[in-house]
Each structure stands twice: as C-alpha cells, then as structure tokens.
Prior knowledge:
The complex is a heterodimer of chains A (399) and B (311). With 399 residues, chain A is mainly alpha-helical. Helices cover 67% and strands 5% of the residues of chain A.
Amino acid sequence: MKSLIIAWKDFKIRFMDRKGFSLMILFPILLTAILGTALSGVMGEQSLPKTTVGVVQNGTDQIGDYFIKDVLKGKELNDFVSVKIVDSKKKLTSLIHDEKIDAGIVIPNGWSQDLQDGKLKKVDLLVDPGKELQGSMMNSVLQTFVNRVITTSTSTKIVLTNTAQTLSPKEMNDLSIQLSRSLEKLAKSNAKYVQNASIGKKQVSGMQYYAAAMAAMFLLFNIMNGAKSFINERETETLARLMCTPTAKLSVLMGKFLGNLYFCIVQFSLFLVITHLLFHVNWGENIIQTISIALMYSIAVSGLAIFFAALLKDSKTADTVGGLGVQILSLIGGSMVPLTIFPNSLKTVANIAPNKWALSSFIDIMSGTTWNALLLPLTVLFLIGIVSVTIGTWRLQAK
Amino acid sequence: MLEVNHLRKSFGKTEVVKGVTFTVDKGEAFGLLGPNGAGKSTTISMICGLLPYDSGEIKVDGFSVKEHQMEIKRKIGVVPQDIALYPTMSAHDNLIFWGKMYGLSGKQVVKKANEVLEFVGLLDRGKDKIETFSGGMKRRINIGAALMHQPELLIMDEPTVGIDPQSRNHILETVKELNKQGMTIIYTSHYMEEVEFLCKRIGIIDHGEVIAVGTKDDLVKRLSGGTVVKMEVNHFQNRLVEELNTLPLVEKVMVNDDKTELEILVSSGHQALGELVSTAIKNFIEVSSIKVQEPNLETLFLQLTGRSLRD
C-alpha cells in the first residue's frame, strides 16, 4: 500500500512538471513527424502521385458528363485525382503553365456524336512536361474509358444489326433496351475476378517506423529520469525522512519502481493515441500485442532505473551517463537509423539494447505477426526488468 | 521516554560517537548542544533507526531501536536539518503525503494537514508549491510534516539553520507550545540561546562525547569561577596573544576570524581587567572596548573544550 502512495506521488511530480512532461511527449511527436516525413522514401513506400486535372467540356455531351462525374470524380480515383472545371482551353494552358494543375483534358463539342460508327472524337490531353507520371496516368484513364465506351457501343451495334431481320420491331426495341441495360450494368460493375493474396509482410511506412523508434527512444529516457528521481530523494534528505517513517525499505524501492512504470505507461499511451490521430500511424492490427510489448518494455526501463540508482552516486553523474547512454542505445537499437541497414555484427550487438527488442517488436506487430514470434522479445524485456530491479534493490537495501 | 546508553559509532577507522549516554523523560524538552561535527546528527540518526550503531543501546519508551524499529518509528517525529520536502508539490500535498506514510488516510489525513498548516501559521499558503516559499516558511512546513502523526517524541536536528530572526522566533514559539502540550522534544543546535530558551535539561556534546548533562543552572554552577572577557582591539598583532597567555589569571585566549575581538577565559574577570588592558597598551595595541561576560553555557563550553560553540 505504501508503495502505491510513493508511486502516485512520483507520478504526480513528474506529470505536473510541465517542462519535463512536454519534453517527453512533444519531442518524440515532433521528431516522428520530421523523420517520418523526411525519410518516407528510404522506407520503400510507393503510392500514386496526387494529380490535379483541369477539364474543359465544349458544349454538352452525355458521355462527357459521365466521364467527369463517374470516372474522374469517381470513388476509385478520388484519393489521387482532384478535378477542376475550366472554361476554355486557353485558360487550361495558362493553369498548366503556372503549375496550378498537372494535366488538362479538353472534351470536344459532340464528343459521342459519331459513336454509332464506333468512333469518339479526339480528346486533347495537355500535360506539364515536368509531370510525366501524372500525364501517363491521365492518358491511361482516358484511353481505358474510351476503349470501354467504344467496345460497348460496337458490340451492341453488331448484335442489333444481326438480329434485326428475324425480330419484329417491338421485339427489336425490347432487346435493344435489355442489351443496353446489361452492358451498362456490366460497365459499372466493380466485380473482381482476380483474388489478391499477400506474400510476405506488410510494408511499414516511414511514419510508422519512426513512431515506433521514437516511442522506444523516449521511453528509454525514463531509465535516467527514474534513477535521478531516486538520487534526488537521497540528496535532498527526503529519502532519509522516508526511512524514518514506519515503511519497509522494500516498499520504498517498489514505490520508486512503480512510479516510473506508471509514467512510462502513460507516456506510451499518449504517444500512441496522438500519433494515431495526428499522423494516422497504424500500430498494427492486434493492439493487445502492442500493449504487451509496451508494458514489458516499461518494466525493463523501470527496472534499469532502480539498477542505475544503485550504481550512480549523484545527479550530475546521472545526467552525463544518462545522456550518453540513451544516445548510444538509441543508435544501436535502431531508433535513429533503421536496423535493416546495419551490418550483421552490429545487429548482434544491438541485442543488448532493450529499445531494439521493443522497436523490432513494434515493427513486427505493424507488419502483422504472431504471439509465438513475440514470445522471445516479451521474455527478454521482462527478464531485463526483473533482473535489474532485483540487483538494484539488493544493492540499495545493503546501502 | 528515551534512554541512550554508551552509544558508539565509527565510520571506517574514525570513531564519531564515543560512548554517548543520556536520558530524556516523558514530556521533557532536552537540548543537545555542540558545535558542527560534534556528533549530534549521527546520534540523532541512530535514535531514528537510520544508522545502525556499533555498540551500546537506545531505548524509546522501553523498546530497543534494534529490535522494534517500526514501533519506534511510529512514536517518533523527525525534523531533519535539511528541508526534506518535495519542492514542486504544494505544502498541503506534502503534508498529506507524509501523513499517509505514517498510516493516516481519508478525511483524517486531510483534517490533520489543515490543522498542522494552521499550527505553523501557513493555512493560507497551503495550496502553494514549496518552491515558492521563503526559507523560514519551508522550515515551518518541514516541522509540520513531522507533526502529522502526533508523535510522542519529536526530534529536531538544527531546525533553524539559515533563516531570518522572525521565522526563527516563530519556530521556537511553536516548539515551546508543542512541549507545553506534552510532547517530548529533543532539540539539537549549536545556538546556545535557542537551547536555553526551549530546554530544561541540556547535554553538551563535543568530539562524539557528552561532556556535561544537566539543567542550565547546574551546568553554570560547574564553572570553576571562570569568566569570559571580550576585548575589541584595533591593529591586532599575534604577540599580544603570546603575552596574554603568560598572565597568571588567563586560562585561554581566542581570536575571532577578522582579528578584531579576543575572547579571554580568566579565572577572575574583574581582577584581570587591568592587566589585560595594560598588556595591550604595552604592545601598542589600541583597545576599543572591553566587557566581562556573565557565566553561561558558552563559557562552560569554552572551559570544557577550549573552543567556541560556533567553531
């Protein structure tokens, strides 16, 4: 019970320290934003470029209207294409010049008037020479649409021509309506005839990687913050005063351990929610796995805090050792540079860093992993915590 | 209430407490007087159970400190020499925390915290953080934290170090009031006047040994007719001390740090005055004032140890 009182007091002190708390929450968020955005290319993310396309429609045309409304502004292209309706070709050219749009489409007057002959009038596609990829994408969209319209129109025409001699005008009319409805339905159908199957793991985005990396790195700071909290109590005599109260030494030490643990858990939870809401970071399909790793990592960090509290004599030394230690562990643990680019020897050395175990587990969870695969990191992190808190407690009790 | 018998403690090869023995009765205010480094804080730490002792025995209310630490800790309130509070927490929260560490809870602890804040005169500042307080106010909360569980024995280790006279007076009045209410108090200090004001019995400690114990009157009576003469001089020279030491009435001569005042322990103050002044004049040293001090604890300490309490 006394442990919980001490733990709550420690948590409150650190939570109410606005400067320190901001540092532990805002800094990793800021770094995630910078590194995640800047290094997204390095992580092999691929996506279609965002394209703004200007459209000029001369006169009115049913097919033209359908192309603009259901294709360009349709669901499938909505994420990548934004459409701007323009009055004239001259204005369209000027907008491309000013780089306000990436490509322009000019739909001619009576675009579909020759459709009965299996033809559509030519459409002008204007492209900024510096936006070749966007140009090719719009060319492909336009070509696919034109082919589909011509194919549907031609096949309808052939069927109707061949059956005209054998059917009465009424039957002919009914067939014509039925055929055109069926083809229209087919054309609009989103039915898939190819089953997609994923081979290998999901690609983790730069934002995802650095969110996990910063979480692992900034939780690491709690080793020194926790140790310093203990050393400060020793230096300001509050520890001596605590020892004058009817409280067992073990309860005091457990209180210090739990106070740090509370803070780690709250820090991680806030970071997870904020990165998800701000940067849409997907922490993985199985949130229980993420929470389990975060909890074990927090135990490891809090255990190491007690260990270093027993080892270090004053807060100045803790600051020096802490600053240096966190940087080294962050570097070898993959929080600064992705672990995948490390040589094999360094990958082996990285196993000594608790943040490496946490980071690689977070990445695995983001890519999709099994509980079986997480068993080793969970055990390693738990053991780091338990062994260090045991050694630290033993040394501090002896002191 | 407290029995300390032949207490000994060494750090490495240095023995810092050498057979300290004294007793404190229930409801008594006992002063432990001695200069810095005399062994007061080490003795206090052993009574509180913070430091193990090498030999001897400490009993609080009949319980041995070695065997019944938890029971004894419930009976004792400790006011440490340093401000042992959490600076970023409010005074009220600090008191609540320390109260809870002594087993208080719920409404009881909140009520007690308000009572203590009122007692130390800081009820209106309860919600303010300790770091915004003056030195004197911090000291008052430092005392308040030790009162949360209404201890039977309050041990105060130099609680007025480094504060302004007004706060000091407030603290001394507070301690006096606590003693009036029946609380047993052990007050350590190197300020003779504080101990004289608060305590009926006094133990004088130096170099880890209790060199005298008794009431102030008892102790002063032990002076073997010694008197301290304070002489202020201009243009001090070392040879004056040598010459004064050769005088038959002079037992000890001490010079302050800025060499402007001499404290001279003489066997008979008024008889010695003439000789002291003429020795100074003979050595071409101007005497700006001279006075004979009434015998007090300071004189006794000087006589017993050959050094000043504030050394």
